[in-house]
């Protein structure tokens, strides 16, 4: 294991603050875009859900495309940082555009406006920014403990930002007078905050040189305090040249490398499910409004989700070290998370909000280790590909993070739209039908619990750390 340290505390915090930028976009869209479009603009929930689902087809293509571009980028700023920096300006513009749909347009033109802005944001600018941001974990340090710390800090910012946005957005919209103009003002404020935090994050870290990256993984470890001297001792005089040679692969080659990595596929599936889970909870604005009769409870439940998550993230690096790896910790955590969500189901049908909040917190605490060590897990998965093929595909590998975020979040939001339309939801109505009320229970209570169960089953097989140890024990020519 690499014991050399590469980062100061302020580098880790600066990097983590970049998830403020990502979540002013993600949290606003996932929690509020559907109710904005249905109750303020007057769009049909089913049509909106369909447009979001179609948009995600473009996302699935663009993730691997941008990941490959990042892998092949060479600039003074490095591979990932330029994409992270410049991609976010497009995110900010598109976010504002989504909440600026002109009221005097025809219905078809309004749907077209939304689809174009939403697709450009997700399939283009957010993809470039988010994949680059995630890939930095593997590009600024080769110390796995630092990677876990970076992941924990980043997700503390992520969940803190999500909690804040879900808590204050309804009140901010009301303070600015309600209606479309108020939503537009809130979107502009969030976009400005995102640009500032993203820029600070980009310049808080520096990528390692290709030589350092090649030396750090020449044998799957990086124990020397002086990698360049260690390289000479091994006779590896042209690591940079070998790195460039290893990067000469096509997008199809990159796809084949990913397809042969079963752990990558499991992580992708888990990440997509995690984001569908989040999307179903973010649709809680409907559950709070029509079942619990208080839209402001969304903020209270957000605290019950995010405070335990942040506490768990604080302890994740120490727990990973204590448990000797990520596998057992993640599996145990998600087992607790699944039981917690089952408790929410029972409490929901009992009509007890305090019990719902308690079990929500239990579930969130159990789920926190996987959130905190996900980036390190993906880096370990990337190392699995390197050990088997000798190819560095960090950017392409980290595309699963953005792919999961957008596909999962989009599928979850789209599914919510379809289910609402199927149940007979009427936007802005004071009272909904019995079929709609039953559907809200399914969406907010049963679906998250079932998703957690599926993730737990996947985690029983996701022991990539052990697989890497076994590969290192095999001579390179026999892998």
Structure description:
- Helix 2 (18-41) crosses helix 12 (262-282).
- Helices cover 79% and strands 0% of the residues.
- It is globular and about 70 Å long.
- It is built from 19 helices and no strands.
- The protein has one domain (11-219, 249-471): MFS general substrate transporter like domains (Growth Hormone, Chain: A, Up-down Bundle), CATH 1.20.1250.20.
- It is mainly α.
- The longest helix has 37 residues, at 353-389.
Quick overview of this protein structure:
By secondary structure, the chain is an all-alpha fold.
State the distance separating the first and last CA atoms: 20 Å
- Mean pLDDT, to the nearest integer, reads 85
Gyration radius, in Å: 22 Å
- What is the chain-wise order of helices and strands? HHHHHHHHHHHHHHHHHHH
What's the helix count?
19
- How would you name the CATH homologous superfamily? MFS general substrate transporter like domains
Structural class: mainly alpha
Number of domains: 1
Shape: globular
Count of DSSP strands: 0
Largest pleated sheet: none
Write the layout of secondary structure elements.
Layout: H1 9-16, H2 18-41, H3 45-72, H4 81-98, H5 107-139, H6 144-175, H7 179-202, H8 210-216, H9 227-234, H10 239-246, H11 251-259, H12 262-282, H13 284-290, H14 297-322, H15 327-350, H16 353-389, H17 394-423, H18 434-459, H19 464-472
């Amino acid at each position: 294991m690499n014991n050399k340290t590469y980062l100061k505390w302020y580098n880790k915090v600066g990097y983590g603050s970049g998830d403020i930028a990502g979540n002013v976009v993600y949290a606003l869209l996932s929690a509020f875009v559907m109710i904005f479009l249905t109750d303020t603009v007057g769009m049909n929930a089913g049509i909106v859900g369909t447009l979001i689902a179609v948009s995600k087809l473009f996302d699935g293509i663009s993730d691997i495309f941008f990941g490959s571009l990042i892998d092949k980028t060479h600039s003074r700023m490095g591979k990932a940082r330029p994409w992270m920096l410049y991609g976010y300006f497009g995110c900010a513009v598109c976010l504002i555009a989504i909440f600026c749909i002109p009221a005097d347009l025809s219905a078809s033109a309004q749907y077209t406006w939304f689809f174009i802005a939403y697709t450009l944001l997700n399939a283009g600018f957010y993809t470039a920014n988010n994949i680059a941001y995630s890939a930095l974990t593997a590009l600024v340090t080769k110390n796995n403990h630092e990677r876990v710390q970076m992941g924990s800090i980043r997700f503390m910012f992520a969940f803190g930002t999500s909690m804040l946005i879900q808590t204050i957005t309804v009140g901010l919209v009301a303070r600015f007078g309600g209606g479309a103009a108020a939503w537009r003002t809130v979107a502009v404020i969030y976009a400005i905050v995102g640009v500032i935090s993203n820029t600070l994050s980009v310049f808080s870290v520096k990528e390692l040189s290709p030589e350092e990256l090649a030396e750090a993984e020449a044998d799957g470890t990086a124990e020397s305090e002086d990698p360049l001297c260690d390289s000479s001792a091994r006779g590896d005089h042209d690591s940079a040249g070998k790195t460039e040679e290893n990067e000469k692969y096509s997008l199809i080659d990159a796809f084949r490398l990913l397809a042969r990595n079963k752990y990558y596929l499991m992580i992708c599936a888990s990440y997509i499910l995690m984001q569908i889970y989040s999307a179903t909870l973010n649709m809680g604005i409907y559950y709070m409004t029509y079942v619990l009769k208080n839209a402001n409870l969304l903020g209270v439940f957000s605290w019950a989700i995010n405070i335990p998550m942040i506490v768990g993230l604080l302890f994740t690096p120490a727990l990973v070290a204590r448990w000797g790896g990520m596998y057992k910790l993640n599996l145990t955590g998600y087992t607790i998370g699944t039981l917690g969500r089952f408790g929410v189901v029972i409490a929901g049908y009992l009509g007890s909000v305090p019990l719902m909040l308690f079990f929500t917190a239990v579930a969130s605490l159990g789920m926190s280790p996987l959130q905190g060590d996900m980036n390190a897990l993906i880096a370990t998965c990337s190392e699995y590909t390197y050990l088997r093929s000798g190819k560095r595909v960090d950017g392409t590998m980290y595309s699963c993070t953005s792919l999961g975020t957008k596909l999962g979040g989009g599928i979850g939001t789209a599914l919510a739209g379809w289910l609402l339309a199927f149940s007979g939801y009427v936007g802005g109505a004071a009272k909904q039908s019995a079929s709609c009320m039953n559907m809200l229970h399914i969406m907010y209570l049963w679906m998250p619990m079932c998703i957690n169960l599926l993730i737990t089953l996947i985690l029983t097989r996701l022991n990539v750390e052990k697989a890497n140890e076994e590969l290192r024990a095999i001579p390179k020519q026999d892998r």
